[in-house]
């Protein structure tokens, strides 16, 4: 008899017509049959992130545990879209989805465990930080974004908090995370992204369409901040900041930029261009060009700053001190958001 039936019901030589046909059902696969939950890593409005150990292999991952009772249909659609996108992406610098479980009252998204914190948090821990290190970081980020764009996926929310490190070791992998706002690049028109890193066309207000170039702008803002320690268009007043972004005027102020190479400044200038069609288009190396639309000969990955050996080892001490201020400001805002999320969750729970 076939292997789907219990073997003890099919002894050798027994006639098939004499054997009772009792089908053996496969065991139900749930999150708890595959993973053990560990310590809490973080918390959101309707989710808790914990360490999760894969029972069969002993490997440790991160599991976002979703409380489905408090998730709207729209939020659920966003979650499933992000999972769908992550399952399409297999790149060393993009966080990967290992498993997704949707059960009666809970959902679980299992991803790479990123224990090294976010990009800026990691840099401010350093005693010495150089332009070469900034270039190496940006090379990894640009390569990952190029890969996403080749698959027609636009992240739309690139910022340091969404660029994570796998560990605190020097050889830790950098991975882009949080694809909750990402979409297919067949023209996008919704307002999204984090204000300081958002592209001017997103702020245009005319419901115009935008494309991959929004990610290029965000890469430019991140690179600028990595090299000097402050954001090119930031203002405490959001409306003033938006005006600065739409105008696109920025400077390489002394003394912060005195020890930064001309090539690095060129790299930044070619991305922070208000007209999206005049920005660099991220493209993969020659062997993968068939996967992407035609791009200019000098795209980001081929820019001299990225391609050439960079021996700029002068410490960017001003950048570190500036980034410390940026991370401190972000931590205060995150704390405020955490309080708001907790109050929101308590309100939801009291309503049920």
Automatic annotation (TrEMBL):
Q: Does the keyword Nucleotide-binding apply?
A: yes
Residues at which ATP binds: 64
Q: Which CDD domains match?
A: STKc_CAMK (cd05117)
Domain (Protein kinase): residue spans on this chain? 35-306
Single GO term (MF): protein serine/threonine kinase activity
Q: Which Pfam families match?
A: Pkinase (PF00069)
Which family does the UniProt entry place this protein in?
Belongs to the protein kinase superfamily.
Identify this protein by name.
Aste57867_9179 protein
Name of the coding gene: Aste57867_9179
